[in-house]
Amino acid sequence: AHTPRPRARPGARVEQRPDDWLEALAAACHRCLGEGDGVDVTAVVCSGQMQDVVAIGANRLVREWALLYSDARAAAQASAVEDALGTRVADLANYKGAASCLAKWLWLAECEPDALARADGLLLGAHSYLAWALSGGDARVCDRTTAATTGLLDARTGAFAPWAVEALGLDPRLLPRLAAADEVLGQVTASVVERLGLPRALEGATLVHGCGDLGATTLGAGAATYAYLGTSGWLASSRPSTRDGGSSDAATSGEGIFDVLHPLEGTSIMAASMTTAGGCATWAAENVLGGVSLQELDALAARAAPGCGGLLFMPHIAGERSPFLDASARGAFLNVSAAHGQPEFARATLEGVALGYRS
What we know:
By secondary structure, this protein is an alpha+beta fold. The protein has 3 domains: 15-213, Nucleotidyltransferase, domain 5, CATH 3.30.420.40; 215-274, no CATH class; 278-358, Nucleotidyltransferase, domain 5 (2-Layer Sandwich). Helices cover 32% and strands 21% of the residues. The strands form 6 sheets. It has a 4-stranded antiparallel sheet. The chain has a 3-stranded mixed sheet with strand order 2-10-9. The protein is globular.
């Protein structure tokens, strides 16, 4: 079941309300299960977007909004991280400047210190928040795949890097516990079902933390190489890992490449992840083409010739992670002429994303 959630985008800020995720979870479960009479649910396994920062206290949020993976407000803090750590920043797996959770955490400390002072911990993915809520607030954990995207993991050891956190004056006790994707966190209790408005069929189901969307889609694809398009998207392949923090392939040093721990031990995922992929189509449908549906966008695009008469779209509408890393990058339509209409703008949007992956 699909339950869309809004995202706030003031400037370089990209946020969602974690409680909206819970409402979406309840709505999707009811859509799939109804009230669950006669349905036997064995387990609940979570997955979701990674590289978020969610500040939590005792069974509650201390900040209403989560900083999402594509949030780029922490540019100044990223510079401070790099100044403080010097060459050791290279020891942080997949540190990606302002997009990294380490820089966002420092932004909270500098810009919203009261909220951070109320926090008992941080969660680093949407699915980790769902697992925490489904556990009744007992499970503050993070899977290896998600941790490897945050800029908080030591690439040499595969563990979090308290030395980096402490160097910035932050408290490493706020870090979640690392957990395997298949770790059982307990059972979904009757009180949690009632509090979250979930179907009764979930009561007593085994609760498994799961892993971030990159890991889950890799497992689900059942293939060595695949492409994924959601709001963001990536090209990825799985390969043997030769070190605790990921693989030792030379490509890991390339700009815009993520070397991420696979949910399965001894394997890593090499991923080229664009910040905005399918999200470009949603943006164009809503803001360029007058609020058409995505199906109508596809129909418009089919009316335009390949190449769109020279019209080009740069898909970096929320900064970029791959094929280059630049949180300040912005999108554009190029070579616009009076001969270009809605079909060309629709197709150019899709071609721009495709060409981004080709590069």
